[in-house]
């Protein structure tokens, strides 16, 4: 079905140019189509308001700059964020960790994989000295060849769900449950910890303000885009909110 935005049909050439930018998306065609629709809506609004730029991206940027008010985070908001997320402001904190990865793929029976991983974890809870042998025999990570060792890790080195789990462990502790991440199921243990220090608020304030400003900006942009989408005449696709990136 053709996709038409404000009486203008998206072309095959536009799709061919946009599609490679979304190759990693779960549904690249839908993501690319959505991005084109949203861009068209923004450019149409810019034309209506007689806002221009050197190219489409500059035009969209000028539109957002003029039409969207982005609240600036105040010191109270920054201090509250600092108080609520102390882990994010630890510096010099390191761990040495091992893991065994049971990778989840489309070809794998998840029930069987989970059973295998749980059996391995139960064996390690009973006898932690088996960790290296189990990693070499079972892990789908290259670290399995060295007994599951990931070496030294700092915060930010791994995906958030893995980081939260391993940095909660003490030296010598095995996580007594399977850890699920975007990569699969893990058995993890920490061998050594180097405790860091908490940055002072003054040290962290600049980064906090920038991060909160970025969140505030993204929220304001999405709200504005939802308003424009609600006004636009769009055929051939039903947008689920305006959650796609405004520009690439």
List keywords for this structure.
alpha+beta, 16% strand, 2 domains, Chitinase A, domain 3, 46% helix, 4-stranded antiparallel beta sheet, 9 strands
SSE inventory with pairings:
Layout: E1 4-5, E2 8-9, H1 12-18, H2 28-48, H3 56-67, H4 75-84, E3 90-91, E4 94-103, H5 110-126, H6 131-138, E5 149-154, H7 160-166, E6 179-181, E7 184-194, E8 197-198, H8 201-231, E9 234-235
Antiparallel strand pairs: 1-2, 1-9, 3-8, 4-5, 4-7, 6-7
Task: Describe what this molecule looks like in 3D.
By secondary structure, this protein is of the alpha+beta class. The chain has 2 domains: 4-73 and 204-235, no CATH class; 93-195, Chitinase A, domain 3. 46% of the residues lie in helices and 16% in strands. The chain has 8 helices and 9 strands. It has helices at residues 12-18, 28-48, 56-67, 75-84, 110-126, 131-138, 160-166, 201-231; strands spanning 4-5, 8-9, 90-91, 94-103, 149-154, 179-181, 184-194, 197-198, 234-235. The chain has a 4-stranded antiparallel beta sheet with strand order 5-4-7-6. Helix 2 packs across helix 3 and helix 4 crosses helix 8 (201-231). The chain is flat and about 70 Å long. The two termini are 25 Å apart.
